[in-house]
Specification:
The complex is a heterotrimer of chains A (443), B (319) and C (299).
Chain A lengths: L7 H20 L21 E8 L2 H17 L3 E8 L4 H10 L6 E4 L1 H9 L21 H5 L2 E2 L2 E2 L2 E6 L1 E6 H4 L14 H15 L13 H10 L5 E2 L2 E2 L3 H17 L5 H4 L19 E5 L3 H7 L4 E4 L11 E8 L6 H13 L1 H7 L9 H7 L5 H15 L12 H16 L5 H20 L1
Parallel strand pairs in A: 1-2, 1-3
Antiparallel strand pairs in A: 3-12, 4-5, 6-12, 7-10, 7-11, 8-9
Helix pairs in contact in A: 2-13, 9-17, 12-13, 13-14, 16-17
Chain B lengths: L21 H36 L2 E2 L7 E2 L3 H8 L2 H34 L4 H14 L3 H10 L5 H8 L14 H11 L2 H12 L3 H9 L4 H29 L3 H6 L13 H11 L3 H29 L9
Antiparallel strand pairs in B: 1-2
Helix pairs in contact in B: 1-13, 3-7, 3-8, 3-10, 3-12, 4-8, 8-10, 10-13, 12-13
Chain C lengths: L24 H29 L20 H8 L6 H32 L5 H12 L4 H13 L7 H4 L8 H12 L3 H9 L4 H12 L1 H17 L2 H6 L8 H11 L5 H33 L4
Helix pairs in contact in C: 1-13, 2-13, 3-7, 3-10, 3-12, 4-7, 8-9, 10-13, 12-13
Classes of the chains: A alpha+beta (443), B mainly alpha (319), C mainly alpha (299).
Amino acid sequence: MAILGLSRTVRSLAAGTAVLAVLATAACGGGSRASDQEAGGPPEREQPVQLEVTWWGGPARAEITQKVLDLYTQKHPNVTFTTQWQGYSGYYDKVNTSAAGRNAADIIQIDNRVLREYANKGLIAELDPWVGSTLQLDGIDPKLLETGKVDGKLYAIPLAANTGSFVVDKTVVEPLGLLPPETGWASWEEFGEWAARVNQATGSQPWAFRDESATMGAFEFWLRQRGKELYDGQKPGFTVEDATAWFEMWATFRDSGAASPAEVAQPANGGDISKNTVITQQTAGTFSYDNQLTEIAKGTDHELVLVPLPGDQSGAYARPSQFFTAYARGENIATAVDVINFFVSDPEAGAILGTERGLPPNKQVRDQIAPQFDEQLQYVLAFDERVTAQAGPTPPVPAQGDSQVTRLLTAAAENVGFGRQTPAEAAEEFVAQVTGELERAAS
Amino acid sequence: MADTAVRPAPAAGTTQTASRGRPGRRKEAVAGYVFLSPWLLGLFGITLLPMLYSLYLSFTDYDLLQDPEWVGLENYERMFTGDPQFWNAVVATVLFAVTSVPLKLAVALGVALLLYRNRRGVGLYRSLYYVPSLLGGSVAIAIVWQTLFGGQGAINEVLAVFGIPTRAWINDPSFALGTLVVLAAWQFGAPMVIFLAGLKQIPAEMFEAAALDGAGRFKQFWHVTLPLLSPVLFFNVVLETIAGFQGFTAAFVISGGTGGPADSTLLYTVYLYLRGFGDFQMGYASAMAWVFLIVLGIITAIVFRSGSLWVHYADEGDR
Amino acid sequence: MATTTVAPVATAAAAPGPVGNNRRWYEGATAHVVLIALLLVALYPIVYMIGTSFKAPDEILNNVNVLPRRFSPQNYAEGWIGIPGVTFGTFFLNSAVVAAGVVIGNVVACSLAAFAFARLKFPLRGFWFAIMIGTLLLPHHVLIVPQYVLFNSLEWINTPLPLIVPKFLATEAFFVFLMVQFMRGIPRSLDEAAEIDGCGPYRRFLFVVLPLTKPALVTTAVFSFIWTWNDFFTQLVYLNDLDAYTVPIGLRLFLDSSGQNAIAPMFAMSVLSLVPVFLFFLVFQRLIVDGINTSGIKG
């Protein structure tokens, strides 16, 4: 027992040094296995490859995504997949955690909220080397493809496009004779009046519309109608006056009964489809991205319709609903890229995916599969094309720190909704905090 | 620490005499450290050194993807002056601890007193009351709580019977924390068991003597029970206070991981988690952790200090 | 450092208590009424949980009674399938593995440390003991960030190792304390007898003290199991991949990912997740309660 010969102090020092050494290596970055691979190289066709894919969504999306992956394995038996999926809330926590542990999934679904951050932090691989070879992107609308570029470099492939919409429960409003016009309302005021009338008729069972003051998509639309964007570089593109007007508008809606009380709206503020208030039949309408109609319709037996957001449609745009990206430290980036290409360019894959994530980004694929779509998918497709035809210019990729801003908007909206702050107070705090966060994120 | 060099143990096999001679004592000292070595390794590797590393990190900006970047006091500055959510978390946590701990202990003591004076079925009651404590910290119970106190939950139905207006308790910032307090108080079984044990220790003669002096029930409680129970009470106060400030699971699960609505259930530990493992601002989270440690230490010290004022040890005279 | 004067529970012989006025019969009855009422309130959430787990999905939000209108045990089957990709069976297995590791780690490591504190004389013993008590009061959230960094660099994230290995280093001071208290209650004469027979400290530990410490060991094992089974925070931090998830995290994921229709299966799985804990409790009731008394603490 030689260790007994060591003095206690020396022993504890040894233990301590060992730990410190370990901690020190933690601070140093680990070597990148990806550097061994040739950027732009061909996908692996012989050796067995296992790729991990992660995305957010509901059970419906999980099912079809799995089907597409199985299809790929059919065509390329050497490639198999493991999958990770969950609801939207907490999704990025998970991705961040696994990235920190240096073992993120090989293919990661993201939205534009974190694109800039992930690109800047070297989390996702630059895809330009594969364009033209593994990545066949001609069929994709160049404007849509642009949304996946940060500073001119392609980092993410849009899986689908969607646009914001209001989902209305036809089964509730039609008997009241209050079905909204297919082209939507001419202004937000008109929308408010319509909703107030609905609420009167239903006696708040359900509430006419969900309080959407915390919804980033709606806020952005409304801002764009005023000629502003969410971001101006790493600064907010809106002022305190804008934010105040937004919160005040929803306060008016709540007072008139057009919008539900904050406590009814609150559970759905996290973005989880499972808490959608139309599904829970607490409201007759809610904001939603048009492609989510599939998932929402599954959750209720009522009939649903899509209505454009109120006012002029310059606020809309063909939004990349999700991207697929390749983990920069993956072991088989080339193969991962090939799988991504499969998702967006293969007609069979496109047929399976339908419009659940949004509209197929590849026009060729879209034209090929549209006839096979069922009624509901055709409906969503038609809606989307109608709205985006009048859309304004595509906004730039959101600034780094965008996910914080979403959280701040929710907090501010909830504070106003629950009467803890006036719209003006909340707006001021909101803008100040957003400015701070964006500054910090950029440094 | 001064280190007394420990000479190697005598060769194995030599018979030890019963006398605690120098070799025997040395061997025992060595053995002591051998037995203690896993704990020592754990203490330094898992506790102390990480604590120091955490202190270092608190002065950096670290997101685990890139190296820590020294920023001095910036994290602390931001915490105290530039982060309204931090103060929301502090308020929520203090509010939670200050309401749930006394409530929980009061119920525990009350039930213990009831049980104690009515001896039949004590064992059964005790075990049954303990079950909530057993299960209360779990995710499963948090899920049940969320449903029970939700807008369409059963609690509303029950309260409607009493004419209390219904509301979505967990979705309303004015009441969400209250549901957590109720959940905490619901787990009164554990401190109750301890109180029961303490009550049993009080010798009957004390009460007899007091009764002979003409003391009524209440006076007996105040002058006999409470003082003799004070060590146990003190113990419970310390432990429950510490636990109260560290609540996490229920707040996290019920609010869907947000601390909402409107930060009303944003307990300090939840906020720490969100910043550290959600946003990966590990430097900031470390700073928060240190502030937490210091404040908790101060509070514990205050409780201990106050203890010397009101805790009465029965055997003090013998010490 | 103040310690409590609560000694191991001795069964009370007579019935001490406030003496005086003869307890009128209705006082006892009132007390029982109160106790039972409180018990019903206290157990209501649990009974509600069990009852609701058997309700048909459309009943959940409509029927607020405890009993289901339509007995629907299929919730359990549905819930077991869990999330596409991973069944609850995996979660249970993972939890079991972690719990087993923790139990063994705690029992072994804490008994070693406790023996040193309770029975052996060595320099600075008092100092280390005070430090150990100090760590009892340390909030573990303070350590989670650097510990995470540490385990990350060892590439242990996503494995049960960060949850189990520290237990083998006696990091749960509570159990060390529990065992120390217990060991101090074992008469020294036995130790001395063994010493005279030529047993060194190692054999004294193995053959004399440890067997007599069994009740404390069992208590440690039981509490370790229960706390680990319900542990959420550390498991949340260290386990990322779906197939590494344990029951608490799997349950929460289920909560977040499922639609409205899945509340019933979720309740079913919630009930199931609590069954092991409850079983342990039933079997070891006496020990648990005595264990709390011996060293006092949290449930």
